[in-house]
Amino acid sequence: MKTVNIGLLGGGNIGCGVWTLLQDMRQDIQKRCHVDLRITKILVRDINEPRPCALPPELLTTNPHDVTRADNIQIVAEFLGGIQPAAMYMQDAMAHKKAVVTANKAALATEGASLRAAASANHVGLHYEASVCAAIPVIGAFKHSLQANRVTRIMGIINGTTNYILSEMAQHNKDYQQVLAEAQRLGLAEPDPSSDVQGRDAAYKLSILASLAFGGQVAVQHIYTEGITGVTPEDILCGKDRGYALKLLAIAKMGEHGVEARVHPALIPNNHPLAGVNGAFNAVHLTGHACGDMTFMGKGAGPMPTAGAVISDIINAAEALAHLYIEEESQEQALSMAEDWQSAYFIRILAEDEAGVAAVFAREGVSLASVEQSGEGTGGRVPLICTTRPASERAVRAALENLPPSACSVQSVIRVES
Amino acid sequence: MKTVNIGLLGGGNIGCGVWTLLQDMRQDIQKRCHVDLRITKILVRDINEPRPCALPPELLTTNPHDVTRADNIQIVAEFLGGIQPAAMYMQDAMAHKKAVVTANKAALATEGASLRAAASANHVGLHYEASVCAAIPVIGAFKHSLQANRVTRIMGIINGTTNYILSEMAQHNKDYQQVLAEAQRLGLAEPDPSSDVQGRDAAYKLSILASLAFGGQVAVQHIYTEGITGVTPEDILCGKDRGYALKLLAIAKMGEHGVEARVHPALIPNNHPLAGVNGAFNAVHLTGHACGDMTFMGKGAGPMPTAGAVISDIINAAEALAHLYIEEESQEQALSMAEDWQSAYFIRILAEDEAGVAAVFAREGVSLASVEQSGEGTGGRVPLICTTRPASERAVRAALENLPPSACSVQSVIRVES
Prior knowledge:
2 copies of one chain form a homodimer.
Chain A: E1 2-9, H1 13-33, E2 35-43, E3 60-61, H2 65-68, E4 75-78, H3 86-95, E5 99-102, H4 105-121, E6 126-127, H5 138-144, E7 151-157, H6 160-172, H7 176-185, H8 194-197, H9 200-214, E8 224-225, H10 233-240, E9 244-255, E10 258-269, E11 281-288, E12 292-299, H11 303-321, E13 342-351, H12 354-363, E14 368-373, E15 382-388, E16 391-392, H13 393-402, E17 408-416
Parallel strand pairs in A: 1-2, 1-4, 2-3, 4-5, 5-6, 8-10, 10-17
Antiparallel strand pairs in A: 7-9, 7-11, 9-10, 11-12, 13-15, 13-16, 13-17, 14-15
Helix pairs in contact in A: 1-11, 3-4, 4-9, 6-7, 12-13
């Protein structure tokens, strides 16, 4: 049987998960995949730091070159997090003819083009299933199962922290701040939650997914990104009463005017496959011209689900080593990005005058499907819920800007997706 | 660019789908996958038969050897349906060093071991994504994404015809016979629907999935199979009133006592990911020890979804041709099959005496969670709905056999899964 030596960059939660799962599954993998996988070196920040699991001290190093340049290592698996030095280490490993497996969405979303170019130039594999939605094999689906499809749309719940927060807010009618604090206590949100709650984490993942699905670069800085910090229990209730669930959605569409890519809170009908995805679960819904609609759902984070994806990629990389591995020439042309998109909107406004509001929307070409008064007015203003027909984002924004502040105030604007 | 020639076995719905989709996607595939795929020969039953699409007459043949033995063909794709002569033709193609792609669940479920052995002996690939749930890449997930998982359970809605029938019965409170006739008129059920409605089609697919998931042979004749022909609107309503959906489930579990594999109607709680899978959609829910719960959902049938999976497999086969393709030694030991399993049950009974019924169950060690009287009695008997606690199938059957026919009659027995 072939032996493949593996070096790990990172010995924290994911590194320990990979170590533990590989010890557990080593014999099964030998039997099923005819390869003996051995971890021979692990880069850590500090050898004496406490760790989630016991790692053999003789495997630990603080010198990255012991992993990226070791003659006896064939595959380097990286889970340092953050863009640098992770991307630099991966480049170094590929320059030294190692296949690279990574769980690092930030490095991949920002340095993906140069990492793929390095893989191609060095004829080594670059595998990144674990970088998006951990255990859910959505990268594998795009690479190996959907090649005969023109994917026209991706829509996903791809951040577990925000989905947990929104699910708790919806179920217990609680405030954002209150649920965030609870999630932090439970270890479900980071001490600094900004990357999750501001939508950046989801934008990284959407950039990776959309680039793969549409066959070109969808840069993270071109993704419109709006987080959940402004979502109120009233927004959620307002949707719920009308048969909708409020989710942080990551959406990418390939349309006539280019690619449209955005991350923002949105309402989806209760019978949509994503509406029932609650708690820390993730899901990706996609549409292909041959396959139609398809949904993948599962655990999008956690040491074990992530370790499972990393080891699967290590096995795929090891199988590829058996032949001369030639990474496809990477197709890194930037895709043209759409500057506008269509959506329906729920808009909650306190206004003196319903007709005046409707007139402003009409002037911008935004047609209202309904205007309801919800509850009692105060100070001469009444709370209105306006539902638009599908309208251009740009026109809706223009209308909102043109509402006279002397006569009304906008309380929330939420897109409706289906 | 490399050119790969493909021969098709079958020029009906799927064959025409593959032809059409490949013409549509040929340039995209050249660009993305660096391979030019050409269909050079198509086996048909009768050259002059009417067909769903126009196929170039010079490609058609009625001699299978023109496909399976042609020197210039590297990949043979089969969609004849039925076990023979399909399996024989695939054997012949592999003996002549062609990689084989198949959408044929019946051939694979019954002749899978010998087909995999032939692939291994001839060092050619055998690809069968399209044989289970068409576009949903569940075979690919088991092969290339879940290698670091011990899969403990598969639970699927893997027959679109029966799911359509049950969905319609549930939504419109209609009889099985009435909905079946409508489905036949709409082309959603075959003129002879027996393979679908008796659960045989689902059992074939479960055999393929479970064999792959558990790494050994789960023979179709060892799968307990019960169809939907006995399901009544009352059964569905009885579940609905209590928060359950009635589905034809295919279930395989790897437990202490071996593999348990069964296809039968079952109730699942409304918040289960499979409960909302309606109409002709398919879904597979699985549990792995590292990945946790995961669900794949999509179109499980139809010429285009199936053609997408076939062409994806053709591309994967073509990429494998670039190296010397060595199929893993197939692990065809038969797995030990469990002879009993646990489930909760909804049992509707007309009985003279509630206490007498409960006593019979108790004698067999089956504990009842609740007994409700539903509606008025007639002729000295009252309708009871008994819900058992999780109990052994064998014990429940023994109890049902021991109910005195003079004092009660069993109207329906439905397992509850979650």
